[in-house]
Amino acid sequence: EYYNGEIFPMHLPRRPGDTEDPEISGTHDILVTNIIVEINKQLQGRHCTIFGSEKKVRVGSAAVRADVSVVCREERPVNENQDVIENPTLIVEVMSRSSAGYDRGEKFHSYQGLSQLKEYVVVSNEEHRVQVFERKDNHTWLLRIYQQPTDAVRLTSIHCTLLLKNIYDKTNLSVEPRL
């Protein structure tokens, strides 16, 4: 990820001796896919577009990769390649223990400068826990936390609802038995 003129590796290759649980780190991609699929189904026929991390988000002079972003309005690319957007309505980050401080701290602080951003969602890949930060005005954010498998995560900015059990489906945190 490119931030403040520096490049930071976000996904390092697995090596012998790594202490992170491979089942937890493999959960990231499944969570992102589940979220994209669930939101995309609900955006059918609407003027909103969902992107994965292939689309970067412009925050100040930096371009960062959000796991999921949704643009509701005309997408405004900021470069010739059209791989950077500046007007997301919703951003979702799937966090691990190692990225939690950055995702909820400096990265969230950077995202707050995006005037079109209405919601920022942080999804844990270690436990059932989804945090939704909803912008109430330019200086106030309301936090809602969802932790029960039966919870329905409300994304008011895009008028979507995600069931926690669907977000965590096919992961080591799934509430459904695996066959």
Task: Give a structural overview.
With 179 residues, this protein is of the alpha+beta class. The chain is 20% helix and 31% strand. The chain is built from four helices and 13 strands. It has helices at 22-42, 100-104, 106-111, 164-167, and strands spanning 2-3, 6-7, 48-51, 56-59, 62-65, 68-72, 84-85, 90-95, 119-124, 130-135, 141-146, 152-155, 160-163. The longest helix has 21 residues, at 22-42. Mean pLDDT is 82; it is low at 11-24.
Short description:
The chain has four helices and 13 strands.
Strand content: 25-35%
Rough shape?
A: globular
Radius of gyration over C-alpha positions, nearest whole angstrom: 16 Å
Mean pLDDT: 82
The arrangement of helices and strands along the chain is EEHEEEEEEHHEEEEEH
Helix percent reads 10-25%
Q: Give the strand line-up of the largest sheet.
A: 3-6-8-9-10-11
Report the count of strand segments. Answer: 13
Number of helices: 4
Measured distance between first and last alpha carbons: 37 Å
How is the main sheet built?
6 strands, mixed
Uncertain regions: pLDDT < 50 for 5+ in a row?
11-24
Structural class: alpha+beta
List the SSEs and their pairings.
Layout: E1 2-3, E2 6-7, H1 22-42, E3 48-51, E4 56-59, E5 62-65, E6 68-72, E7 84-85, E8 90-95, H2 100-104, H3 106-111, E9 119-124, E10 130-135, E11 141-146, E12 152-155, E13 160-163, H4 164-167
Parallel strand pairs: 4-7, 8-9
Antiparallel strand pairs: 1-2, 3-6, 4-5, 6-8, 9-10, 10-11, 12-13
